[in-house]
């Protein structure tokens, strides 16, 4: 392949991964029948909340002719990820750092859940990002304290399971509390997974499922990463009233949970494209975790080995990598992976890569215009040198966005309105 055709092929793989997880594809077959007599209450949160709410509203109103007077609900998505709805409220809120819009939207969702009766169906449409979008701090914890804690956790290198363990014990909606509040209604959750292992207790911090984690484990996370929390957070994490409902709790007797899309589904779609193009798909896993630069170094070594063996292949991986912030630059795990990969490949010919977050944004300041990731080509380092850029210095400063922005290699599809986490592909074309 030429540089241009290789980049286009990798972009096509990324687009296929996103399309396989879009609610317009995966949601309609999973939607349950509307209730016979009561209300249908739609509660959506996360980066796919807008598209999920849009699809579900059309499905019930148009295909089922459901009485609009019996349809209630609200969706809370990341800023820039809202979609047009006809009668249900759509709110755009902060992510990854929560804001006042998310606070207000979560309260409306809680109020609707609390109003549910045994004749109602509460349909929860959940996707990655819900932990930040549905922000309902435990009593005594202010929004500013939650914001400060979120920033500290994101910079610490903690993984998503650890972060959500803390979140679930500082919330009135996470960790099964939404399902508890919706009793005695029938609660059905349809979820798009964005976490390694597809654990319902971690996706969106599990608002409708039992929480196996404890207050003590939440405190341990903060201690492990040497995070000194705001005083109100420290108090809340020692208050037994903030312990979450556990497996076996009667609150979940009338609650159902279904995964409708997961990272593995996206790789099924992309593997076929790779084969059709005459390459060998090498799936390294859809649930990788770890430091982005360390994973990149390992994959660079694997790509070099494939090239040396003369194998035409595409290394593919998903999951959620982390970045321990040591500098003050801009970027996210996918861009840092791409920069570290370029450094480790040392300009090796015939190896290309793309790394991007399927939600359309990777790290950044929370704007919908943030890049999703970046491309790597054999001449990445040569073009950087010609522009007077030192890749190692940018990597040390965690400033991958500035590096790829300067050489025109950012991946910026804009909001995709879904999220099954990272998609990385390293093309070896000897």
From TrEMBL:
Give residue ranges for domain MOFRL-associated: 10-237
Any transmembrane segments, and where? none
Cited SUPFAM superfamilies: GckA/TtuD-like
Single GO molecular function: glycerate kinase activity
Which organism is this entry from? Ancylobacter defluvii
Which protein, by its recorded name, is this? Answer: Hydroxypyruvate reductase
List the record's Gene Ontology CC terms alphabetically: cytoplasm
- The source's domain of life comes to Bacteria
Q: Which InterPro entries match?
A: GK-like_C_sf (IPR037035), GK_N_sf (IPR038614), MOFRL (IPR007835), MOFRL_assoc_dom (IPR025286), MOFRL_protein (IPR039760)
Tell me the ranges covered by the MOFRL domain, including all copies. 314-422
Q: What Pfam families does the record point to?
A: DUF4147, MOFRL
């Amino acid at each position: 392949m030429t540089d241009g055709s290789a980049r286009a092929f990798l972009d096509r793989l990324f687009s296929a991964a996103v399309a396989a997880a879009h609610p317009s594809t995966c949601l309609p077959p999973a939607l349950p029948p509307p209730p016979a007599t009561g209300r249908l209450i739609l509660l959506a949160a996360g980066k796919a909340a807008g598209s999920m709410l849009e699809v579900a509203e059309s499905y019930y109103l148009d295909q089922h002719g459901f009485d609009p007077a019996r349809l209630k609900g609200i969706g809370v998505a990341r800023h820039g990820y809202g979609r047009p709805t006809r009668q249900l409220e759509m709110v755009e809120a902060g992510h990854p750092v929560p804001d006042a819009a998310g606070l207000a939207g979560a309260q409306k969702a809680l109020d609707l859940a609390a109003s549910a009766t045994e004749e109602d169906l509460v349909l929860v449409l959940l996707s990655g990002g819900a932990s930040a979008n549905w922000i309902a701090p435990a009593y005594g914890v202010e929004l500013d304290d939650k914001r400060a804690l979120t920033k500290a956790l994101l910079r610490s290198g903690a993984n998503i399971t650890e972060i959500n363990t803390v979140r679930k014990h500082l919330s009135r909606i996470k960790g099964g509390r939404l399902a508890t509040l919706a009793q005695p209604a029938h609660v059905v959750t349809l979820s798009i997974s964005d976490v390694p292992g597809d654990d319902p207790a971690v996706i969106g911090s599990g608002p409708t499922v039992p929480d196996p984690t404890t207050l003590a484990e939440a405190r341990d996370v903060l201690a492990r990463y040497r995070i000194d929390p705001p005083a109100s957070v420290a108090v809340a994490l020692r208050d037994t009233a903030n312990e979450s409902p556990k497996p076996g709790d009667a609150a979940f007797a009338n609650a159902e949970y279904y995964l409708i899309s997961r990272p593995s589904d996206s790789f099924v779609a992309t593997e076929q494209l790779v084969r059709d193009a005459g390459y060998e798909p090498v799936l390294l896993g859809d649930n990788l975790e770890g430091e982005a630069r360390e994973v990149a170094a390992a994959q660079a070594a694997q790509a070099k080995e494939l090239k040396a063996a003369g194998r035409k292949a595409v290394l593919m991986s998903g999951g959620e990598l982390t970045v321990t912030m040591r500098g003050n630059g801009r970027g996210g795990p996918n861009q840092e992976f791409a920069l570290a990969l370029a450094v480790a490949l040392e300009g090796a010919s015939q190896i290309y890569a793309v790394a991007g977050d399927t939600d359309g944004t990777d790290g950044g300041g929370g704007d919908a215009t943030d890049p999703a990731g970046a491309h790597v080509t054999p001449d990445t380092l040569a073009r950087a040198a010609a522009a007077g850029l030192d890749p190692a210095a940018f990597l040390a400063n965690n400033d991958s966005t500035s590096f790829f922005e300067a050489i025109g290699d950012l991946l910026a599809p804009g909001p995709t309105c879904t999220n099954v986490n990272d998609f990385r592909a390293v093309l070896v074309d000897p």
